[in-house]
């Protein structure tokens, strides 16, 4: 009886040792498999990077050969963008940050196949600062956001300082600067694209507002020369109580984009009116607040203001339920009611 337990204890130790060895082997196998997967992924990534680098160099060579064959002289940027600007009249207006540029365009492959164009319509472009502290040989680095041409959204360092009204601009865009929206059967991923753009008109925000006011015959607007706010009452109630700073007002409103008159929003909003002399805006954009502060209860008015009093250089965002483009001057038709 006393000796019968010894084999059992030995067997248990052997079993535990075997289990431990199997666990170690499984661990090594898992680690080895994981390492193999990581190595494979890294190798694939390296292969992809090498392929894309090769395509980038091929694009550059293709563009240079095309320019040479067609006897064209183009400037280039470090991003790989080649461009030609033909100035029709150097006395005309240059687009500045925040201006609106109306243009027509045709997009082609280098073999001449047309892949896109503005056809009978026109788009517009808003020019915004990309990095105003970084001065390059072509001027301030800029980011262009063209609508409705998606590829232009990714173009950085574009030669804006050379572009004027009535100019003809040709861009040779390598695959690395093309937007995902440009990829199609006619325009596969790894090919360069040529864009021929006619700059039709440049308008500052002030010019956009003036054009809208004239076209819609809005009379009697008061203009704040310090910030560009314009205001006119369309229904006056001189016997009604003034809206005091610090009170909450219920405002019925309709908002429109000045550049095309398109309504982007309407409804009712509570505004905690703050002093227009300050920088706060009472929970709404400053131009809206400052206009309401001029009213009496029961009155109706039109408020117009530049983007500096609105959504500025960012807009309300493309994913917003009520998207407002960057640098958009706005118009609001409002009615002030007691809360």
What key phrases describe this protein's structure?
339 residues, alpha+beta, Chitinase A, domain 3, 3 domains, eight-stranded antiparallel sheet, six-stranded antiparallel sheet, 3 helices, 14 strands, 24% helix
How many individual helices? 3
Order of helices and strands: HEEEEEEEEHEEEEHEE
Q: What's the Cα radius of gyration? A: 31 Å
In the CATH scheme, what's the topology name of the largest domain?
Chitinase A, domain 3
Strand content: 25-35%
> What composes the largest sheet?
8 strands, antiparallel
Q: Helical percent range? A: 10-25%
Question: Termini separation (Å)?
Answer: 96 Å
What's the count of strands? Answer: 14
How many domains would you count in the coordinates? 3
Globular, elongated, flat, extended or rod-shaped: what is the shape?
Answer: flat
Mean pLDDT: 78
| Low-pLDDT windows of residues | 1-5, 120-124, 126-157
Structural class: alpha+beta
Task: Output the CATH class name of the largest domain.
Answer: Alpha Beta
Looking at the overall shape, the CATH architecture of the largest domain is Roll
Folded structure, characterized:
The N and C termini lie far apart (96 Å). This protein has 339 residues and is of the alpha+beta class. It folds into three domains: 1-71; 75-203, Chitinase A, domain 3; 206-338, Chitinase A, domain 3, CATH 3.10.50.40. The strands form two sheets. Strands 1, 2, 3, 4, 5, 6, 7 and 8 form an eight-stranded antiparallel sheet that branches. Strand 5 and strand 6 (139-147) form a beta hairpin. The chain has helices at residues 5-69, 205-215, 286-292; strands at residues 75-76, 82-86, 100-109, 114-117, 123-136, 139-147, 168-173, 193-203, 222-223, 230-235, 248-257, 263-272, 300-305, 330-338. The radius of gyration is 31 Å and the shape is flat.
């Amino acid at each position: 009886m006393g000796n019968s337990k010894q084999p059992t204890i030995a067997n248990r130790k052997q079993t535990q040792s075997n289990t431990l060895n199997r666990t170690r082997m499984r661990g090594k196998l898992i680690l080895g498999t994981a390492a193999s997967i990581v190595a494979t992924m890294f190798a694939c990534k390296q292969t992809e990077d090498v392929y894309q680098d090769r395509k980038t160099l091929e694009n550059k060579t293709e563009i240079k050969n095309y320019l040479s064959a067609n006897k064209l002289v183009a400037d280039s940027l470090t991003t790989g963008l080649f461009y030609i600007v033909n100035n029709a009249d150097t006395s005309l207006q240059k687009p500045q940050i925040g201006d609106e540029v109306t243009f027509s365009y045709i997009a082609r492959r280098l073999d001449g196949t047309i892949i896109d164009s503005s056809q009978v319509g026109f788009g517009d472009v808003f020019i915004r600062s990309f990095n105003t502290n970084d001065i390059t040989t072509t001027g301030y680095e800029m980011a262009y956001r063209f609508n409705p041409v998606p590829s232009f959204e990714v173009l950085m360092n574009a030669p804006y300082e050379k572009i004027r009204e009535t100019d003809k601009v040709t861009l040779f865009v390598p695959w690395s600067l093309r937007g995902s929206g440009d990829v199609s059967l006619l325009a596969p991923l790894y090919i360069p694209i040529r864009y021929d753009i006619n700059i039709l008109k440049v308008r500052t925000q002030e010019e956009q507002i003036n054009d809208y006011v004239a076209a819609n015959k809005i009379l009697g607007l008061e203009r704040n020369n310090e910030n560009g706010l314009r205001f006119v009452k369309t229904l006056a109630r001189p016997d009604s109580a003034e809206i005091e700073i610090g009170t909450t007002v219920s405002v019925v409103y309709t908002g429109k984009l000045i550049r095309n008159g398109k309504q982007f929003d309407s409804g009712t909003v509570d505004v905690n009116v703050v002093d227009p002399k300050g920088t706060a805006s009472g929970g709404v954009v400053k131009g809206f607040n400052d206009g309401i502060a001029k009213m009496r209860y029961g009155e109706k008015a039109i408020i117009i203001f530049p983007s500096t009093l609105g959504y500025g250089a960012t807009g309300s965002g493309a994913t917003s339920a009520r998207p407002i483009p960057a640098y958009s001057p706005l118009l609001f038709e409002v009615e002030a009611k007691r809360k």
